[in-house]
Design brief:
Length: 456
């Protein structure tokens, strides 16, 4: 708001009666994003890397004569983005569902000076990949084993919300939550100063992939939908509706790029975040590949689908003494989303058939070949093991869905079960124990034993 007014005042010193969008003026757009949060890449890391927003602004500048400057500010979680938006220092921000609700609750009394949710970047039908991890040598087997311990979490984040609801459902009390940023919490877990870490994707996966942690609990066990989205300051949206429209169109461009070539998009994101190979392609490749594992689905900037989750989130926030006086669906502004459909981007293509049917868990097996720049699907977990054996050492990473929840996970860190001639994978040992208890004769195996037993 202050920047727009300053630009307006500067313009009036040379040309009386000019507005902020008049020729010769300059407008700065500040975007808050989270480079370590994969679920917001189409409004953050990937969008910035591809430059789609800047390209659209260049076209807009040619039509209006206004110069547009984009400043990208990286944050560890959504909470500081909310604080900066309240202070008028960030115009557009992307974050998870819990931070979104906190954002709305803290700005709802500001009226036209508040914020509004305008799009969704991704959603999970079951809340998967918000996880609780423990050290590899931890004796904890279930959440009940965390009683009387200290758990690191970023209070107000999606990972914190998953922890609170999971502990409530399990009836576990006397757990101390240490409010820490994800990187600080990861260091604390490795140092042994906390017993567990509860965080949003992709921090738990990074630690497990690096053999620095073991998965204890996956949020998909809750079965509560989650989402990530974009919010904008109302003053910015009111003064510059054309900029908001171009941002949403650029977000759609990035989403379509991800759908068209998910592996290339994952590699771009990995390089921007300086992450090792094999850790990123897990998260955001499902829709393009016509599989529907239930942990995370990339979304175009359309209406949020996780409405059942909003009620659970509001109840959680009420427990934290933050009443929400309006419903989650009332916080969304549909007008910019309608306008952004008028100009499809260069990667747009019809999506007929992508939602033809919902596949059951167990149809998300994939292996990424080392150095070949491609991935190969497998029909079943058993076939995936056979394909890995046939490839020898040429597999960079392999992913398999949890047999219960559908959450896609690293094959070499999954808990495997042999049930007759079939091999099933589970993200946690607790899930594997439930299956073996219900299926006499089923046998729990580690990854190496499963590969050996599967053969070629």
């Amino acid at each position: 708001m202050k920047r727009a007014i300053a630009a307006l005042l500067a313009a009036t010193t040379t040309t009386a009666g000019c507005s902020a969008s008049a020729a010769g003026t300059e407008v700065e757009i500040v975007i808050g994003y989270q480079s370590k949060t994969i679920n917001t890449v189409t409004a953050g890391t990937l969008l910035r890397k591809l430059g789609f927003f800047e390209k659209r602004l260049a076209d807009l500048s040619a039509r209006t004569g206004t110069k547009y400057t984009v400043t990208w500010q990286d944050y560890a979680t959504g909470a500081p983005i909310t604080a900066e938006m309240i202070a008028g220092k960030v115009d557009i921000g992307s974050m998870g569902d819990f931070p979104l609700l906190i954002n709305g609750s803290r700005t709802q009394d500001k009226g036209d000076e508040g914020t509004r949710m305008v799009s969704v970047t991704g959603y999970s039908a079951t809340g998967g990949l918000n996880m609780v991890v423990v050290p590899p040598d931890s004796p904890a087997k279930t959440l009940a084993d965390l009683k009387g311990t200290t758990v690191s979490a970023s209070v107000g984040s999606a990972g914190h919300g998953t922890l609170v609801r999971a502990l409530q459902r399990a009836g576990v009390e006397d757990v101390t939550v240490e409010n820490q940023q994800p990187s600080i919490g990861a260091s604390a877990l490795q140092a042994g100063s906390v017993s567990a870490l509860a965080q949003f994707v992709a921090w738990p996966g990074m630690l497990v992939h690096g053999k620095q942690a073991r998965l204890l609990y996956d949020g998909s066990a809750l079965g509560i939908p989650t989402l990530h989205g974009v919010v904008v300051r109302k003053p910015f949206a009111t003064e510059h509706p054309d900029l908001l429209t171009e941002f949403l169109r650029a977000q759609l461009d990035a989403t379509e790029y991800l759908h068209a070539d998910p592996l290339a998009a994952a590699e771009r994101g990995r390089r921007d975040r300086a992450r090792p190979r094999g850790r990123v392609p897990l998260q955001r490749t499902e829709r393009h590949l016509h599989v529907r594992p239930r942990h995370q689905t990339p979304s175009a900037p359309g209406p949020p689908r996780g409405r059942p989750a909003a009620g659970a989130h509001r109840r959680h926030q009420a427990a934290r003494r933050r009443r929400l006086h309006r419903r989650h669906r009332g916080e969304r502004d549909r007008r910019p989303r309608r306008r952004r459909h008028h100009q499809p981007g260069p990667h747009h293509r019809p999506r007929r058939g992508l939602r033809r049917r919902r596949r059951r868990p167990g149809h998300g097996e994939r292996a990424v070949a080392r150095g070949r720049g491609r991935d190969a699907p497998a029909a079943t977990p058993t076939c995936l093991l056979k394909n890995i054996n046939a490839a020898g050492g040429e597999v960079r990473a392999a992913y398999v869905p949890d047999a219960e929840t559908g959450t896609r996970w690293f094959a070499d860190h999954a808990v495997w079960v042999r049930d007759g001639a079939d091999f099933l994978a589970f993200t946690t040992a607790d899930g594997a124990r439930r299956h073996t208890a219900a299926h006499p004769g089923a046998q729990v195996l580690d990854y190496a034993a499963a590969l050996k037993a599967a053969g070629r």
